[in-house]
Fold these 4 entries.
Entry 1:
Amino acid sequence: MENHHHHNSEALLASSLQGFRSEVSKILNKVLPISEPGTELEFQFLSLVWIQKCVDVIPLIHRAFAKLVVEIDHPMNKWGKSQIEEYLDYSLNLLELLNSVTSGVSHLSHAKLSISHGLSLIEKNSDPLAALEHLNEIQPYDLGKELKVERKMIPENEESPCSGKDLIVRRSLWILMSVSSWIFGVLLSGICSSDKPYLELRKSAGLFDDSLIRGWDTILASEIAENCGVSKEVKEINEVITGLKEAVANGSVDEFAIELKRRLVDLEELMQKIGKKTNDLFSQVLAERGKFLDSLKHTRK
């Protein structure tokens, strides 16, 4: 009977983990749907319009994880040492990546300000040479550091020293890190106009063979490589700037100036959305981390 009960318990835990994976899959499909080529819903993935939605996935999968912890009746104050360390590493990685997003958005904002100033000089019929000094294409942004993900967690297909509820928590944390790392790779590449963040996170984490994100990863890897990480919006702005520079020479700048102003307004709106979502998520992760540390203090007392 004990054996029977043990097997039933293990089956229930395995079912809970599978349920968590299914929930994460539903979240990804709802927030970041993949459309069939040639359909009306088809859109470019390497676009800030699509990329900014990636941030929405993180709090949703965190809620799914919290639901799992309640479902298996294994609150944080009952976790083993390794699970505690893994969660703290995960949340710290997340905060650092969010800071990198903020840095990338700041770069885009400065580039936009310079372009806007050059555009205003043209509209005022000022010295065209002075205007051209500010009308520079948006350049790729180097974060100045290597993006690495701590890999203390054990992948689903490897042996683990823990079992039961601790193992379910460990596997679930692995899924959180896998999906989050992929999302920030996409997000940072699009904002920084560089394929470097995506490639670094992809290589460092080594998590991208997970079936949950394989479809998206296959599409994005191809598109990021083809465009060197440059988003649709930045590419289009740079093309208009090139046309405007050529038009300055013959004095027919109106059409390009109007188009550039429109695209800069759109870029500003997207940057504000990304900035707000990033700040909100940073506050949320910091608060969750703080509660977790407080609960550990009370447990030890």
Entry 2:
Amino acid sequence: MRKPPRKAPLIRWPRRLVEDIARRRAVLFFGSGVSANARSADGKSRPPTWAELLNAAAADMEAKAPQVANEVRTFVERGDVLTAAEIVRRVLGPRKLTALLRRNLVTPQFRAAPIHDALIALDFRITLTPNFDSLYETRAMALNPSAVVCHYSDRSVATRLRDEPDLIIKTHGSMSEPASLIFSRCDYIHARSRYRAFYGLVEALLRTYTFLFVGCGIDDSDMRALLEAYGADHPGAERHYFVAAADTFSDLTASVLADALNLHVLRYDAPAADHAALVDAFKMLRAQVDAERAAMRNPSTTA
């Protein structure tokens, strides 16, 4: 008789993280891995990954610039998506690039997934995301009318960080303002120079809040630079938390990230594609956070 499949263990959420989320002293940073759970209106497609998006651009360039299209694919294969994106931007130009992004990110009418609801339910006061799509913020504002969205280029971002009860910051812009998108290598360089104050604010958040990274890689240029600086300047400080499937990193790599970037990798024993296990893990986290908040409201019950 065949044994039933082993149920993947959920994440053991650290007590410090639960307490910081409960006290709204934590920041959620989520990437494209969260959006990848969405489905189009017809249920047939998901949002493309960066590699898929850039390969689609290469296909558009194939007829007129086959050599350049192949170079884009080569850079994508090497993992150098910023250089590939810079080539795409220069070949397509603003109008065609915007059309490409709309065709792949807007036209399919992607809908929020259960993982969006699970993260929103944790009630972070500050959320950061480099995602161009508006899946999370649209859903968040539907569930919580007090939620406010702003971009990295917003001059009032510092005031909003101080005053808004629920703030969602688009660190790379959004499709609602295509001209502001941080898409390519030169865009990153320009943004880091022109919006130094914003990156200073994020660095301050890293020093004073606990970050929970979900659905993102460790290769985001902005956050990697900030985490490296944080790890170098504060080697003994509290670590931030990075959620990953067990097959994403080896134990050795997890220890390297802990030492180099001050990241505590939280792994769940399931393939990266098993999104249901991750949703269950966040539901469990919410239960722990809710219990902590209840204890905060009624301290006598825990005496």
Entry 3:
Amino acid sequence: MDTSRPIRLVTVAPGHFHAALVQKHAAPGVHRRVHVYAPLDADLVAHVARVAAFNGRAENPTAWELDVRAGADWRERFLREQPGNTVVLSGRNRPKVGLIRAAVALNLHVIADKPWVIDAADLPELDAALAEADDREVLVWDVMTERHEVANRLLRALTREPAVFGDWLGGSAMHPALTLTSTHYLNKTVDGRPLRRPWWWFDPTIAGEGLADVGTHLADLALWLVAPDEPVAPGADAEVYAADRWPLVLTREQFAEVTGLPEVPPEFAPRLAGDLLYYAGNHTAWLGVRGIHVRLTTKWEYDSPGGDTHVAVARGTDAVAEVRQQPGSPPDVFVRASEASHADLLAHLTAAVGRWQAEFPGLAVVDGGSEVKLAIPAALRTGHEEHFAAVMAEYGRAFAAPRSVPAWERVNARTKYHLTTRAVELARARRPF
């Protein structure tokens, strides 16, 4: 990276803990002074406390300096003063696309946490923001942490290995060729502390429904796996066939525990049934991506038995590759033969793993008789919070050479939001609540 032109972060309206995780580790080329523009509210206080904890930890402390400019005129001051070159957005989702567009109009790069939009009505504004970013040669960077999970990287490598996987099966709605399931938990710890969620996180008009939010990762992975390094146009190459949803039902006590609020805000009255709050967190969507049937499922539960989990199944003509994860354990990757013999699968997979050592050093093959496990060494294991450092390193390389970002990234950024917002529309029509 050209260190003579450091990345100078400007964090705008931080409302989600991901805004702080961008700073959990000091990234090369990022200036230590970070400006923050926000309302003077509980979200800002929580953000500053998280960054202060990174500076104060015993092991590998950071040395961030925060210049906080808080007040009712935070947006006007940000637009007027522009003290940095990279805007970090991770907060309320409804206004996010407007902030992206405003930053781009000022020739500022943007690191924006998902989701950029939560309703299809906002897609034209996203299109305009991305088109202007191209014209101005500034970056709009999506924080796709799941691409840096080693199990997902291995799944992608497997599906690109014809001798092992064969070709993608087309599948059907009942038996999709790719299934991706993500289960998240409300009551959990982040960086060793109980996570407090802001009240608005439960309001779908502000935060979006589950598939529009965490489902962004699944839609991104679907494009990344089925059509790697290729542009996938919405409609022509990718469409949503159907979608469904069902609520996560919370008691008032559970809501109070995860938000720290003594009462449910009056704005939530339409979603209350007695003492129960209905949160639109659970969805399933059936998609077509380049003729391949895909099913995405997002689930929210209350108490975590050991952390969020991710499961994936990819079906090829010669083999089935799976990511399996039990709560409290890291994800593992398994492969079993479908048309090919187990002996042939083992031989081809062993050869492939040998070629992959530069990218996955220490990866090994374990023959389980009916399936093969990829033994992932501890050195390749990184958690969700560490994936933000990988995203920042990736952004740093793009910041140094914006024209090096491939065109398919820009196309697919728009496509995944077309898929998620369309799926939410279909799910709402199918099951109002």
Entry 4:
Amino acid sequence: MSEILQYGADIEIAPKNAYVSVRRKKQFAILQPATKNRFEIGINLKGQEAKGKLEGVSASNAMCSHIIKIADVKEVDEEVLGWIRTAYEHAG
């Protein structure tokens, strides 16, 4: 979260019942526990091809276009932060 907040002063953190919404002018990411052993980062990057850790979401009613699954905090690396930053930049 501390890394994401450095992207800009216009970021709004909105805790919900089951996840945390991260927004600029529009929501660009959600952070949520998925299971006991996995955390998920939802990303809004419509039109972006899924690659690397970025997986496409096929549900038409999904809040995000992509998802990144995290099983260990060490998996939050430059690739993951780069996808979140790209989503932030597209949300402006």
